[in-house]
Amino acid sequence: MDVKTVFLNGNLEENVYMDQPVCKLKKSIYGLKQASRQWYLKFNDTIMSFEFKENIVDQCICLKVSVSKFIFLILYVDDILLATNNLGLLSETKKFLSNNFEMKDMGEAGYVIGIEIFCYKSQGLLSLSQKEYINKVLERFIMDKCSASPVPIQKKDKFSLIQCPIWKAVKKVLRYLQGTKNHMLTYRRSDHLEVIGYTDSDFASCMDTRKSTFIYVYLLDGGAISWKSAKQSVIAASTMEAEFVACFEATVQANWLRNFISGLGVVDSIARSLKIYCDHFAAILFSKKRC
What residues does the Reverse transcriptase Ty1/copia-type domain cover (predicted)? Predict the structure, then answer.
């Protein structure tokens, strides 16, 4: 008789370290800079073979349509979210994925990337909450027992680069989160979905650069789906210019939303012009001016 790989059976009594010999990789592994991309390319090729089609502006969202049945697949690194109107198609998709990759079925989605999902099918409602995530943030900064604040910042508050520290302002934001952590984004089922945008801007609020801050938000049946607040890249010479820049930023996002939602095929009204509301009459007139 002969013992195979005999020396591999012994147990070491000392700590022994060695350099691993140079080797050629046949597949991607953790630690490679291209690992995430190679995973995406492999996954994308696989689901494309199952007749999924990727969204033209967000390749991590795919759609498969079979007559009146459809299923959405959302990929976030190694997390997959599936949404469908047919349980049979859902089972087929899960089986296909399991045959190609080692998968773990987590059941109905309840908590995804820091967002809690509440689905009230009988009422036609879907709500998104970040209460648990907010609680973790408050605990991290030892603010979980703090009193609530009605607003995160007041109009009179002004900040400058020479102000340091601004911990009091940060604590006020955390107190605002304490008072609003039970609030949720809620979407209602409707046969006539419509995307509506709102935009606004202040004027020269930055004490260091005199740049203005703009904001826009897009709603779908009362629930926000896209929003942004940021300092403008240019210095506006008037309130009209500041509001016009805000309208421009909102319009850029509107074009992206149109392309994104068109690929989803769930909002028929997206083919029409999107409504964007602005509260500055001069900016509205200027935006309608043809050069």
Answer: 1-154
**Could you list the pLDDT tens digit for every one of the 291 residues in the chain?**
566 776 777 888 899 898 888 999 899 988 889 999 999 999 999 999 999 999 999 999 999 998 889 999 999 988 999 999 999 999 999 999 999 999 889 888 899 888 999 998 889 899 999 999 999 999 999 999 999 999 998 877 777 777 766 788 889 999 999 999 999 999 988 888 889 999 999 999 888 899 999 999 999 888 999 999 999 999 999 999 999 999 999 999 999 999 998 888 877 767 778 899 999 999 999 888 765
Strands (E), the chain: 53-54, 61-66, 69-76, 79-84, 111-112, 115-120, 125-129, 185-188, 195-201, 213-220, 223-231, 275-278
Q: Is 174 exposed, middle or buried (0-12, 13-18, 19+ CB in 10 A)?
A: buried
Q: CA nearest 260: which of 93, 57, 38, 82?
A: 57
